[in-house]
Amino acid sequence: MNTPLNLLHLEDNAADAALIQFTLEAGGIGCAITCVHNRGEFVAALERGGFDLVVSDYTLPSFDGLSAIAVVRARWPELPVILVSGTVGEDFAIESLKSGATDYVLKSRLTRLVPAVRRAMQEVAERAERKRLEAQFIEAQKMEVIGQLAAGVAHDFNNILGVIMGYSDMMLMKLPAADPLRNYVGEIRRASERAAGLTLQLLVFGRKQTVQPVVTDLNVVLRDLEQMLGRLIDENIVLTIVPGAQSGNIMADPGYIGQVLMNLVVNARDAMPDGGKLTIATSKVTLAEPFTRAHPGTLPGDYMMLSVSDSGTGMSAEVKARIFEAFFTTKPAGKGTGLGLATCQTIVHQSGGCMSVHSELGKGTTFQVHFPCVEQPLDVTAPSVPSGTLARGTETLLVVEDDPAVRHLAAEVLQTQGYVVLPAINGQDGLNTARVHEGPPIRLVITDVIMPQMGGKVMAEWLKVAYPDLKVLFTSGYTDDAIAHHGVLETGVAFLPKPYTPATLTRKVREMLDA
């Protein structure tokens, strides 16, 4: 035992107390012993708490070991109690064990005390491990339920959100800058973004949304997000970003890194209602085995650390112990879902990293996120999202979508940008539409994956036979595991998840046509 035991010893004989302490130390068990002599001192010491083990004499004036066991078991049922007695007899031992004693040792055979203590502490450790595994199992079940719930509503909900976001964007493009209706439409748009974000959090936390990692530079990701992060905080908060001098490549999804950062920055902002300092920094660190052993899933080696520190209210030990629990929040009703940090932890774990927090009441909070470094070269950076007008074109497109509202929206957006759009309600209708089409050749098919009668993948395979050069863009609001077996998530297959906006749709269409 490397850690000294906090031992409460009930014994009225000083010589016996010294002998037991000597026996334990000689047996290699380090102890911090609190010795008490009567019932009052015993109960008072227990109330103060912090003990790992109780050792009690069997017979004391006006008190006894069996009564001591009863006191312990009434309030602290998991605390081990070992009786030590000079009384010889199996009947006493059996009575003690029936009363709840962990073990019974005779003073004439104190050599049994050391193995009895080791055995008792081993049982405590095993119970703690069982409880930890049970808690993990319950958490896994909870995540599975959340994932199933999210998967069940994701498709229809993403279609609905896509329509709300799409028509909101089209109205904002057409309304004059001074039109008072822009504020109303803007609020609708922001509300739909929050709803889409909540859906994504549920999917990520329930492990129904797969992180798509690329080799990236954490400093570059932070630089690209700097302007957006500044808009999340109040004017009375001073934001300082300190990229590390040493950089290292990591395998992660830049979009999800952004989600982690946004959650941490928003939490920091809420912890500083009267203003303060917020510092975001990166650094390259080497994690040793003691650290990684305390963070399952990580391995010793080089990591890029992202730290987010605030000068806010800080957290108590009780709050820190629960911050990564799903649906746990200290924010008022309606201000937080309790999924933010749980989702962040899931994202980081899926990238092979870990999260930790350091905080004290009144002294602020620091979150540290570690991503393992990789040796692979950086992936080609995608071009930044253009702002302003939507991408235009004149090509003929086939839009296959079973949801009427989504189909009409996609068709209207693309027609407005100059494209010729042929709509179809499912895969079979898409084949018929392509067969009877007599105008300019169809250059691109935009199709939902899962539809009645015939899905998008089967339809695309038939179309490819007749039109080998035809390009196909798949879309879906279903969860990744629901569409993975359709082959849509395979490398090289173009995919646009729902809900998509007019900007993302037209940009993706233009990219594919120009490729």
Account of the protein in words:
By secondary structure, the protein is of the alpha/beta class. It folds into 4 domains: about 5-125, Response regulator (Rossmann fold), CATH 3.40.50; about 130-205, Orthogonal Bundle (Helix Hairpins), CATH 1.10.287; about 215-370, Heat Shock Protein 90; about 395-515, Response regulator (Rossmann fold, 3-Layer(aba) Sandwich). The protein is about 45% helix and about 20% strand. The chain contains 16 helices and 19 strands. It has a 5-stranded parallel sheet with strand order 2-1-3-6-7, with helices on both faces. Strands 9-11-12-14-13 form a 5-stranded mixed sheet. Strands 16-15-17-18-19 form a 5-stranded parallel sheet, sandwiched between helices. Strand 18 (about 470-475), helix 15 and strand 19 form a beta-alpha-beta unit. The longest helix is centred in the N-terminal third of the chain and has 62 residues, at about 115-175. It is elongated.
Class by helix and strand content?
A: alpha/beta
CATH topology of the largest domain: Heat Shock Protein 90
Second rung of CATH, namely the architecture of the largest domain: 2-Layer Sandwich
Number of helices: 16
**Rg, please?**
32 Å
Q: Which range best describes the helical content: under 10%, 10-25%, 25-40%, 40-55%, 55-70% or over 70%? A: 40-55%
What's the number of extended β-strand segments? 19
Shape: elongated
Which ranges are low-confidence, i.e. pLDDT below 50, for 5 or more consecutive residues? Answer: 381-387
Instruction: State the name of the first-level CATH class of the largest domain.
Output: Alpha Beta
